[in-house]
Amino acid sequence: MDDQLARIDPTTDPSTAAVILRCMPNQVGPCPRCQGLTARCGPNAQVVCP
Ligand SMILES: [Zn+2]
To answer: Residues with beta carbon < 5 A to ion ligand 1?
Structure first.
């Protein structure tokens, strides 16, 4: 299963989410639509998850 693009539950630890998102923990933030964690800042920023 490739769950790389799956929504990341907001209770997920930011450092864990950062590994999944391949970004820094301080770039992780909640998606405004679904509250799932996404990379809000940085080179791979996605303000809204896929
Ligand atoms: Zn979302």
So the answer is: 31, 33-34, 36, 49
Those residues whose C-beta lies under 8 Å from the C-beta of residue 25, and which sit 6 or more positions away, are 14, 15, 17, 18
Q: Please tell me what DSSP assigns to residue 1.
A: -
Distance between CA atoms of residues 47 and 28, nearest Å = 10
- Ligand 1 centre to CA of 50 (Å) is 7
What tokens does 26 get?
């301080």
pLDDT digits (tens, 9 = 90+) for 12-21: 999 999 999 9
Please choose, from the candidates 6, 14, 7, the residue with its C-alpha nearest in 3D space to the C-alpha of residue 34: 7
Query: pTM of this prediction?
Result: 0.78
